[in-house]
Write a structure and sequence with these properties.
The protein has 626 residues and is an alpha/beta fold. It contains 21 helices and 16 strands. The chain starts with 5 loop residues before the first strand and ends in an 8-residue tail after the last helix.
Length: 626
C-alpha cells in the first residue's frame, strides 16, 4: 500500500495556509454568483479584483490562523504531544469556519444591504426579533447561504486530511530560525504587502468602490471593524469653512402673525413603505399600467408632487432614523447600534409636540424589533403602536398575522385609521411603517391568486401593500380629519434592484418621495433629488415653526434646482446631486480613503459634510449650544 506523503513543519503550514486561501476563494466565487446581478465588473477591472482577492484573502487567512501558527511554531518539545496537536487542529478548523460562514451568510444578505458584514452583526442578532420563526424561511429561501459553505467545508476537510506532518527532527537552533522566518512571512501577509497596513478602505485601490465587496470579505471586515473606532475625526478644512460649505445649523421660517391667527394647523400622516423602490412604480418609470406594481400609488401620483426620492441607507433602522432625525448613517455600523446611540439629538415628532401636535408611530411588527419602540420614545413620539397593541385591543385575528414579522399591511392600516379617530383632538403627527413587502414575502390566503409574483417574490408583496394603501385612503377619506391632512409617502430603503438601471450608484437608493395635500391636489413631477434627511427640515420649514436645530439635510423650500443625497457604502462615501442646468441629469462624487472621484467642488462639499458629521457625532454635538 502506498504510503501518504509527509511534509516537514514549514511545508505543512504553507499547505495549510494555501488550503484556507483556496477555500476562501471558492466562497468569493459563490458570493459573486449569488450577486452577479448587482455586481457587474467588466474587462480589465477583473484583474484588479483578482489581485485584490489575493492580497485581502491572504491577509484574512493569515490573521485568522495566527493563533494556530503560533501554537505550531513555538520552539518547544511539547509540540510533538498528540493532545497538543489535536487542540491546535481544532483551532485551525474553527478559524476556517469563521472565515467561510460570514461570506456564505452575506451571499444572501448582501442583496438587501449592498454592504459587507461588520461588527454590527453581534448587536443586530440581539434585536432583530423572532429569529426562530424566520429561520425555516431563511434556510429554505436562501439555501445556498448554508449549503455553499457546507460543501466548501467538506471539500476542505477532504483535502486537509491529505496533508500529513512528518516527525520534527530539527535542532532547536534551526527551529528558532524557521520560526523567525515564518513570523516575518506572516507579518508580510497580515499587513497586505510591504506598503502601509491594508484597511477595509484599501479595497478601492483595486477596483471601483462599488465593487469592493468582491475584493474584501466579510470575515476580514468584521474583525477590522471590531477593533477600530466607528468614526475618527477628520480635518479637511477649518470648522468655519465646513459650516459655510455645508450648513448643519438650520433655522426654519417663522409664521406670519395672520397665519397664527387664521390658519388651522394641518395634520401630518407620514407613510414609510417597507422596501419600496422607484423601480416598482409606474409613476416613476412611465410604465404601462400592466407593468407597474403600484396601480393605486400611480393613480394618486396624479394629485401629488413627486420628487426624486433617495434613501440614506439600506436598512430600516437607518431609514427611520434619517427621516425622523435628519441624521444619515455614514459609518459601517447603524448609528443607533453604535457607541454613539445614546447621544442626544432632536427628533421630528418632538418638534411637532412642542407646537401642540399629538404624535404616534405605527408599525405592525412585534414590539422590540430593531429597538424601534425605544428609538420612537427617544425622538418624541407619544405612542408606539405595534403588534402587541393591535392584539391587546382585541382586533387581531389569526389570519392577520403573517407568520414571520407581524400584522399584515391591510388589517394594520385599517387599524391605524381607527386608532387615529380616537385622538379626540387635532392636530396630529402620525407615522406609519408597513411590514409586508419584506422577506419571506407573505400574502394572505384570500389574496393568493390576486397578485402575481413576476421576476421576484417581492413584487407580489409590493402589489399587496399598494392594495392595502388604497383601502387605507378609502377609509381615511371618510374621516373628518382627512381634508386637513398632509400625506407624505416614502420608503425606508429601496428593494431588490431587478434591472441594470437600478443596480448602480445612482439606482441602489432610489425611493418614492410623494407629497399629497387634499386641499391643494396637484400632479407635478419635480426632478429635484430629495433624500430622507430632507424630510425633517422641509416639514418644519413648510409649517413655519421658526425652530433652530442640527440637520444633515436641506429644506426643499429653500432649494432651487440642485438637491443631493449622501450615503455610506463599503467604506466609501457617495454624494449624488442634480445638474444645475439639467436637473434630470445626476452627478456623483465618491471618497474612499485616499481615492476620490468627481468634481472638485462636489468633493469639497462632501468632505465638509463628513467632517461636520464625524465631529458632531463623536463629540455629542447634535443638539445646539453643546
Amino acid at each position: 500500500m502506498r504510503k501518504k506523503r509527509e511534509h516537514n513543519l514549514y511545508a505543512y503550514l504553507v499547505l495549510k495556509l494555501l488550503l484556507a486561501f483556496f477555500s476562501l476563494l471558492l466562497m468569493q466565487a459563490l458570493f459573486y454568483l449569488c450577486n452577479s446581478h448587482i455586481l457587474r465588473p467588466e474587462g480589465s477591472e477583473w484583474y484588479g479584483i483578482l489581485l485584490g482577492n489575493t492580497v485581502f484573502g491572504m491577509a484574512t487567512v493569515a490573521t485568522f490562523l495566527l493563533p494556530y501558527f503560533l501554537m505550531m511554531l513555538l520552539p518547544f518539545g511539547f509540540l510533538q504531544k498528540k493532545g497538543y496537536r489535536i487542540v491546535a487542529e481544532v483551532l485551525y478548523l474553527l478559524a476556517i469556519l469563521l472565515i467561510l460562514i460570514p461570506r456564505g451568510a452575506n451571499a444572501a444578505y448582501y442583496q438587501y444591504t449592498y454592504r459587507l458584514l461588520s461588527d454590527e452583526i453581534f448587536s443586530y442578532l440581539g434585536i432583530s426579533g423572532q429569529m426562530g420563526s424566520l429561520a425555516p424561511h431563511f434556510a429554505t429561501d436562501y439555501w445556498y447561504a448554508w449549503v455553499g459553505p457546507l460543501v466548501v467545508f467538506v471539500l476542505f476537510l477532504f483535502l486537509n486530511s491529505r496533508i500529513r506532518l512528518a516527525t520534527d527532527k530539527r535542532s532547536p537552533k534551526l527551529h528558532l530560525i524557521g520560526t523567525l522566518a515564518a513570523a516575518l512571512l506572516l507579518g508580510f501577509l497580515v499587513r497586505g504587502g510591504f506598503g502601509k497596513f491594508i484597511t477595509p478602505d484599501s479595497a478601492a485601490d483595486y477596483c471601483q468602490p462599488k465593487y469592493t465587496a468582491l475584493v474584501s470579505n466579510d470575515a476580514y471586515n468584521i474583525l477590522r471593524t471590531l477593533f477600530t473606532p466607528e468614526l475618527e475625526e477628520v480635518h479637511y478644512m477649518s470648522a468655519e469653512e465646513a459650516e459655510q460649505l455645508c450648513p448643519t445649523v438650520f433655522t426654519s421660517l417663522p409664521k406670519e402673525p395672520w397665519e397664527e391667527a387664521n390658519s388651522p394647523s394641518p395634520n401630518i400622516v407620514l407613510i414609510v413603505v417597507e422596501s419600496l423602490g422607484q423601480e416598482f412604480m409606474g409613476c416613476y418609470n412611465s410604465q404601462p399600467d400592466a407593468d407597474t406594481r403600484t396601480p393605486f400609488l400611480d393613480s394618486l401620483a396624479q394629485y401629488c408632487t413627486l420628487y426624486d426620492g433617495r434613501a440614506n441607507g439600506k436598512k430600516s433602522i437607518e431609514g427611520i432614523l434619517a427621516i425622523n432625525t435628519s441624521i444619515p448613517n455614514l459609518m459601517a455600523q447603524p448609528f443607533t447600534n453604535s457607541k454613539y446611540g445614546d447621544n442626544d439629538f432632536t427628533g421630528l415628532p418632538a418638534i411637532f409636540k412642542q407646537h401642540g401636535y399629538r404624535t404616534a408611530f405605527y408599525h405592525g411588527t412585534y414590539n422590540g424589533v430593531m429597538n424601534f419602540d425605544k428609538l420612537c420614545a427617544k425622538i418624541g413620539f407619544d405612542e408606539y403602536l405595534g403588534k402587541n397593541e393591535y392584539e391587546a385591543e382585541g382586533m387581531g385575528k389569526p389570519e392577520d398575522y403573517d407568520g414571520a414579522w407581524g400584522i399584515l399591511d391591510e388589517p394594520f392600516l385599517q387599524y391605524t385609521v381607527r386608532h387615529i379617530n380616537t385622538y379626540g383632538h387635532q392636530p396630529f403627527f402620525a407615522e406609519v411603517f408597513t411590514v409586508s413587502s419584506h422577506h419571506p414575502y407573505p400574502i394572505p390566503d384570500h389574496h393568493k391568486h390576486r397578485f402575481t409574483e413576476g421576476q421576484h417574490p417581492i413584487l407580489k408583496c409590493v402589489e399587496y401593500t399598494d392594495h392595502a394603501l388604497r383601502r387605507f385612503f378609502e377609509e381615511a377619506q371618510k374621516q373628518p380629519w382627512y381634508s386637513n391632512t398632509l400625506f407624505i409617502i416614502t420608503a425606508d430603503h429601496s428593494g431588490h434592484g431587478l434591472s441594470p438601471e437600478y443596480n448602480d450608484y445612482d439606482g441602489w437608493y432610489r425611493i418614492p418621495m410623494m407629497v399629497f395635500d387634499p386641499q391643494q391636489p396637484e400632479g407635478r413631477h419635480d426632478p429635484l433629488i430629495v433624500q430622507q434627511t430632507d424630510i425633517f427640515p422641509s416639514l418644519v420649514d413648510r409649517f413655519r415653526f421658526g425652530d433652530r436645530f442640527v440637520t444633515f439635510g436641506n429644506s426643499i423650500h429653500q432649494l432651487c434646482k440642485v438637491g443631493n443625497q449622501v450615503y455610506f457604502g463599503n467604506g466609501y462615501y457617495c454624494l449624488v446631486y442634480n445638474d444645475l442646468q439639467f436637473p434630470t441629469q445626476h452627478h456623483m462624487a465618491v471618497i474612499q480613503g485616499d481615492r476620490e472621484e468627481g468634481d472638485p467642488k462636489a468633493l469639497k462639499y462632501l468632505k465638509a459634510l463628513i467632517q461636520q458629521y464625524n465631529d458632531r457625532i463623536i463629540n455629542n454635538k447634535l443638539i445646539l449650544n453643546r
